[in-house]
Amino acid sequence: MTTTITITAFESSPDRGRGLARDMRVRWALEETGQPYDVRLVSFEAMKKPAHLALQPFGQIPTYEEGDLALFESGAIVLRIAERRPGLLPADADARSRAIAWMFAALSTVEPPIVEREMATYVERGKDWFEARRPILEERIRTRLDQLSRRLGDAPWLDGDFSAGDLLMVTVLRRLESSGLLDATPNLPAYIARGVARPAYKRAFAAQLAVFEAARKA
Amino acid sequence: MTTTITITAFESSPDRGRGLARDMRVRWALEETGQPYDVRLVSFEAMKKPAHLALQPFGQIPTYEEGDLALFESGAIVLRIAERRPGLLPADADARSRAIAWMFAALSTVEPPIVEREMATYVERGKDWFEARRPILEERIRTRLDQLSRRLGDAPWLDGDFSAGDLLMVTVLRRLESSGLLDATPNLPAYIARGVARPAYKRAFAAQLAVFEAARKA
Predict the structure, then answer these.
(1) pLDDT tens digit string along B123-153?
(2) For residue A218, what pLDDT band results from cuts at 50, 70 and 90?
(3) Which residues contact B109 (CB under 8 A, 6 or more apart)?
(4) Domain match, A173 and A191 both
(5) pLDDT tens digit string along A91-116?
(6) Nearest one of A52, A66, A45 to A3, comparing CA atoms
(7) CA torsion, points B84, B90, B94, B100, in degrees to nearest 10?
(8) Number of structural domains, chain B?
(9) One domain, residues A29 and A15
(10) Are residues B143 and B106 part of one domain?
(11) Confidence band (pLDDT; 50, 70, 90) for B1?
(12) Which of A72, A127, A147 faces B58 most closely, judged by CB atoms?
C-alpha cells in the first residue's frame, strides 16, 4: 500500500500558468520518480491562516504531506523525494553530495538575486529610484549566470547525469526567460531547454497549467 | 585511518573575527561531530582565480575537501557532515526530513532578506535612495522574524533536539545581532544565546577568531 502524497499549490496562479511557482519543482520531482500525488489549492488569504501556518510557518506554498509527515521548503521536499526513489540522485555517495551542493547553489546562491529583481518590480516600480537600481540588480544576476555558464560549459547537466540539482537550477533559471538576461550565456537557455523537454517536466507543467485553466473558466 | 578534511576560509576576515563568514557553519558542524579539520586561507584575489573556481564555481568560501570529494555551499557541506556522524540529525526518517527543511528555511527563506539589507549597506549607502529603502528592507526581515518567532515559541530548538537546522538558523540570525531588528522577538535572541553557548560553537568561534588575530599581528 502506498501512502497518499498531498502537496499545496496556489489556487490562483500569479504567473498565469507559466509554471514558475514553487509547487512546479515538487510536481516535477514526483513525476521524475513516478509517484502520483494529490493537490490541495490554497488562496492567498488561507495561506496566512493558522491551519496553513501549522504546515508552513512562513505562509508559502508548497507543502508536502505523506502519512504523518508534513514538510515545507521546496528544496527539502525535492530532497526527500530524491532520497527515497531512484532517478534524482546518483548512487555513489560523493556524487550524491555534489548533486545536493547544486540544490543548495540553485536556492541559496543563484535564486536570491533573481527573486530580488522580481521583488523590486512588484514593490518598487513606482519609486523614483527604480530605474537607477535596475543595473545594480541585473549586474548581480549576470555575475552568477557567467559563473554558472562557465562551470556548465558543454556538459548536458551540472555534474554527470540529470539530478535534483539540475531540476532546481532549471526552475530557478526559468524565472529569467522573459528578461533577456540569459542571452549572453547561450549554454544556459540550451540547458533550460533540455530540462523542460523531459517527459516528467511536461507532465508536471501540464498539471499546473490545468489548475490555471480551470480557475479561469470558473 | 581517517581522511583529512580541509576547508577554506577568508585569509582576512571581513567581519574582524565576529564569526559571521560561512566557514563558521562548517567549523561548528565539524566540532559538533568531533572531527578535526585543516583550514586553507584564501585571499579575495585568489578566490576569483581558476584554482579556487574549480572548487567553488561562484568564487566564495567555504569549500570542503575530503579524500576525492570536493564540495561547496555551506548548506550542502553541513548536510554531508550531519549525514555521516551522529549529533546533527535525528535518527527517525521523518524527523530527519523536518530538520533538513529547517536547513533550507534558514538559507532560502530567512537569510536572503538579511543579506539584502547588508548588500544595500555595502553597495548603495551613498545613493540618495538608501534611507528611503531602509524601511522596505527591514519590513521584509521583520515579517520573517515574526513568523519564525511564532513557530519557535517557548521551545529550545525548532523541532525537537538541536539539529543542523538550528545550527544554520542560529548563524543566519547572528547576522542581525547589531541591527536592533531582533528586539521585537525576544525568544530569538534567547535561541541564539542557546546556540552560541554550546561547547562546539565556542571551539569553532575561537578557531576562526584565531585566524583574525594572527592576521592582525602579522
Answers:
(1) 898 898 999 999 999 999 999 999 999 999 9
(2) confident
(3) A58, A60, A73, B144
(4) yes
(5) 999 999 999 999 999 999 999 999 99
(6) A66
(7) -70
(8) 2
(9) yes
(10) yes
(11) low
(12) A147
Q: Would you state the cell numbers that stand for residue A120, as one nine-digit string?
A: 523590486
Cβ(A160)–Cβ(A96) below 8 Å: no
pLDDT for the residue A1: 52
Same domain flag for B58 and B110: no
Q: Tell me: the pLDDT tens digits for A110-152? A: 999 999 999 999 889 889 899 999 999 999 999 999 999 999 9
Pairing of strands B5-10, A69-72: unpaired
Q: Is B9 helix (H, G, I), strand (E, B) or coil?
A: strand
For the entire predicted model, the pTM comes to 0.97
Same-domain pairing of B160 and B190: yes
pLDDT, tens digit, 9 for 90 and up, residues A76-95: 999 999 999 999 999 999 99
Find chain A residues with C-beta within 8 A of B123's C-beta.
136
CATH code of the domain in which A35 resides: 3.40.30.10
Distance CA B72, CA B104 (A): 15
User: Which positions in chain A touch B104 (Cβ < 8 Å)?
Assistant: 73-76, 107
Cβ–Cβ < 8 Å for B27, B57: no
Interface test with B, best of A104, A123, A141, A152 (most B CBs within 10 A): A104
Measured at the CA of A101, the angle between CA A97 and CA A104, to 5 degrees, comes to 135
- Domain ranges, residue B193: 93-198
CB-based contact B97 A76, cutoff 8 Å: yes
With cut-offs at 50, 70 and 90, classify the pLDDT of residue A213: very high
Same domain for A193 and A204, yes or no, is no
Distance in angstroms (rounded) separating the CA atoms of residues B117 and B127: 14
Provide the shortest C-alpha distance from residue B86 to chain A (in Å). 17
Beta carbons of B49 and B98 less than 8 angstroms apart: no
